[in-house]
Design a protein that fits this description.
The protein folds into 3 domains: 109 residues, GAF domain (Beta-Lactamase); 34 residues, no CATH class; 71 residues. The protein is built from 8 helices and 5 strands, in the order H-E-E-H-E-E-E-H-H-H-H-H-H. It has a 5-stranded antiparallel sheet with strand order 2-1-5-4-3, sandwiched between helices. A hairpin with a 5-residue loop joins strand 3 and strand 4. Helix 7 packs across helix 8. It is flat and about 55 Å long. It starts with a helix and ends with a helix.
Length: 218
């Protein structure tokens, strides 16, 4: 199959995903066949970019770090668009048959701003009822460095996970370790090379053990 044919195949996916997930989800498809800056060749109606435009800097940063990613995708990277709205971005790297050249990228951007506002409202009501501490989700998201590299993001996720553990690492049971590995995997941490080894060091175990945890069914 020719490179352009491969990209044409993904054009259908843009419309399908957009109609399936609704107004808060923006989907776009960029071709990298003509230049490294890309060319928008398909998009959902809520995407404000014009067809033919180059890849926005929000996505270029992710592509720049692709060489350090295991597999062909990265999920749920935090971001903020040019209108200041908080979002989560998942990117799929489309390659030719030989898997050596990236010929396009498929992006899914989910606007979470209204979700965060709703959560903050509910948390405020909860605080007034229970008198307990309130989590300000907007503040939490804004405190995340939304311009960090993919490497820094994954490291931040690992550090956050371990900061929430209430006992020493060497006191964790196997089931607790598996649960931690599963949660980090859901956040896409292991899409990045080196993080399996990093977690193995923190658990004082081998990388083979971490891979075994990943394959363990819940």
């Amino acid at each position: 199959m020719e490179k352009q044919e491969i990209l044409n195949h993904y054009k259908f996916m843009v419309e399908f995903i957009g109609k399936s997930l609704g107004k808060d989800v923006e989907v776009n498809l960029y071709s990298l066949l003509k230049n490294k800056e890309g060319e928008l060749i398909a998009k959902t109606l809520n995407c404000k970019e014009s067809l033919g435009s180059s890849i926005p800097s929000l996505y270029l940063k992710i592509i720049k770090n692709y060489k350090n990613i295991n597999g062909n995708m990265i999920n749920k990277v935090p971001g903020k668009d040019k209108n200041g709205k908080l979002c989560r971005i998942s990117t799929y790297f489309i390659t030719e048959v030989t898997k050596k050249e990236i010929i396009g990228i498929l992006n899914i951007k989910i606007d979470i701003s209204e979700m965060v506002s709703a959560a903050n409202y509910l948390n405020g009501i909860l605080k007034s009822v229970t008198g307990g501490p309130e989590r300000n989700l907007t503040k939490e998201y804004e405190e995340e460095n939304l311009k960090i590299t993919v490497e820094e993001y994954s490291e931040k996720m690992i550090d956050k996970m371990f900061s929430e553990i209430k006992k020493p690492n060497d006191a964790l049971t196997t089931s607790e370790k598996i649960e931690i590995v599963k949660k980090l995997d859901e956040k896409g941490v292991f899409n990045l090379k080196g993080n399996i080894g990093e977690l193995a060091k923190r658990f004082n175990t081998s990388e083979k053990t971490i891979y075994r945890y990943l394959k363990t069914e819940n």
